Amino acid sequence: MILLDGQAVAAAIRCELSQQVHRLQVSSGKVPHLAVILIGHDPASHTYVDAKLKACRAVGFKTTVIRHATIQEADLLHQMVQLNNDPMIDGLIVQLPLPPHISVPRVIHHMKPEKDVDGFHALNYGRMARSLPAHIPATPLGILILLARYQLETSGKHCVIVGRSRTVGAPLSILMSRDGYPGNATVTLCHSHTQHLSALTRQADILVAAVGRPRLITADMVKKGAVVIDVGITREPDQTRKLGYRLQGDVDFARVAPRCSYITPVPGGVGPMTIAALLLNTLRAAQNQVYVTDQGI
Fold first, then answer.
1. Using N-to-C axis directions, what is the helix angle for 138-149 and 270-286, rounded to 10°?
2. What distance in Å separates the CA atoms of residue 107 and residue 96, rounded to the nearest whole number?
3. In what order do the strands lie in the sheet with 33-39?
4. Which residues lie below 8 Å from residue 203, measured CB to CB, with a gap of 6+?
């Protein structure tokens, strides 16, 4: 069994991006600039935003973070329009989840697709589905990069994804079935209404768990020699830890790992790759590498 070390791969990517940012600044004076809007007091959201900002600083990006204890939807949308129209801002994130009085679809719709470095806008999603240049959702993109960095074969493999969210499972199913590498896989997308889940997961050459249910994937659900990608991350109370909790994935790691050829740890697997992919999207936005032409639409 080999660990898919997202921490190490993400560190290598940050080093590469730092060099590209330096070259961009020397050649054009341009420095990529990411703006983040954070609403409320959710501890996990604050932790995620702080990690993103730290990674941005590490590669030389400019950052702007706008924190609101609370805000009305109309005021948030107005602020987004201002950031959309600010030529100094290359990427824009509104950290999810949002308070219940704010419509997530409406917020995403108000984001300029070329600044949507989370890859959630319908235009980015549609372009991704048609294999056109687009900002790809960060977690699926991070998974693809991780598979590629370890040179894992995907063509002709059976990829079973447990979880059909719009941010991970659904876009990853499209990406893994597209022509190219990583891709050309046969994909089965499972969810809460899937019957005989274990029978499907045992067929997987590549098994992705992305539902947020701790230890959902047990050893008897995994084919020997499978590649297992654990996207889930849940805080479980643990008074023996300094912070009073531990992070647990969707996979029962201790029992599943001996059956795998490769497996991601939690933490240190998909999480760092998500942030690395976000940085990559932001750099591409700053370089105008995505929305340079509408040819083919």
1. 110
2. 10
3. 62-68, 33-39, 91-94
4. 158, 160, 188, 223
Residue 171, both tokens: 């876009």
What is the amino acid identity at position 145? I
- Of 123, 177, 141, nearest in space to 6 by CA: 141
In angstroms, the CA 179 to CA 148 distance is 15
Report percent pLDDT > 90 for the chain.
91
Taking residue 288's Cβ as centre, other Cβ atoms within 10 Å add up to: 11
Which token pair is 185?
Answer: 């896989």
Segment 208-238, tens digit of pLDDT: 999 999 999 999 999 999 999 999 999 888 8
Q: Region 146-164: what's the mean pLDDT?
A: 98
Task: Please give the positions annotated as active site.
Answer: 52, 95, 118
Q: Residue 247 has what pLDDT?
A: 87
How far apart (Å, rounded) are the C-alpha atoms in residues 177 and 180?
A: 9
Range 91-100 average pLDDT: 96
For the chain, list the domains and their CATH numbers. 28-112 (3.40.50.10860), 138-271 (3.40.50.720)
Longest dimension (CA), the chain: 57
Dig out the tokens for 200 from the structure: 């499907």
Measured CA to CA, the distance from residue 273 to residue 68 in angstroms comes to 27
Q: How high is the pLDDT of residue 292?
A: 58
Q: Distance (Å, rounded) from C-alpha 182 to C-alpha 22?
A: 29
Peptide bond preceding 43: is omega within 30 degrees of 0, i.e. cis? no
**Cα–Cα distance measured from residue 96 to residue 196, given in angstroms and rounded to the nearest whole number:** 32
CA–centroid distance for 9 within its chain: 15
Any idea which residue has 């045992």 for tokens?
Answer: 202
Measured CA to CA, the distance from residue 140 to residue 185 in angstroms comes to 15
